[in-house]
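Ticket reopened. Same input as before:
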Amino acid sequence: QSVLTQPPSVSGAPGQRVTISCTGSSSNIGAAYDVHWYQQLPGTAPKLLIYGNANRPSGVPDRFSGSKSGTSASLAITGLQAEDEADYYCQSYDSSLSAFYVFGTGTKVTVL
Amino acid sequence: EVQLVQSGAEVKKPGESLKISCKGSGYSFISYWIGWVRQMPGKGLEWMGIIYPGDSESRYSPSFQGQVTLSADKSISTAYVQWSSLKASDTAMYYCATGEGDCSGGSCFWDYWGQGTLVTVSS
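Engineering reply: fixed in the latest deploy. New output:
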């Protein structure tokens, strides 16, 4: 069971803005560990989308943005496009007794 | 161009052993951590462990400690994960990825990914 909780699904019409939350605790996001986001298109490997809470790798459209506050983080997609339909995962590090890297539960984004 | 190329799909029986690989190119293989991730059918991503090819230091997720063994051969820029006795529950897609940042200290993100290796364990 993941220590980072995401909504199972979010949806929006083309052009709309959607946000995905990633809720953690004082042993991971709240302990100042960075949050990173990955996009997994159907049948493909994950792809780094946001690193260090709010930074986009080269080639990632600026429609994608990340933020972090307290024990939570968010990914926003503005100007939603059909090609954004995918699974999205947040990732951080947890310093509890089971200290290790952790992924969020994952969110399926559907473009209506 | 950084590339991670994983070995092909495997079909095994319960109790058999298996070693899958991840070959890096286009960067200094010994200088970056490699992480391994499991994705069971229709499920989310799970960390298995990480290894530093430079000295083969490895760390395991508690859920995978004792279940798999990570290794690396820096002479051929290849990392491995192996099972000594597969179970049906090991059926999954397995990904490798390169880490950027202080991966031993928890400050790491995973920027390049292999294409995945599908492992099917069935009698």
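Chain A touches chain B through 27 residues (CB under 8 Å). Chain A has a mean pLDDT of 95. Please confirm and we'll close it.
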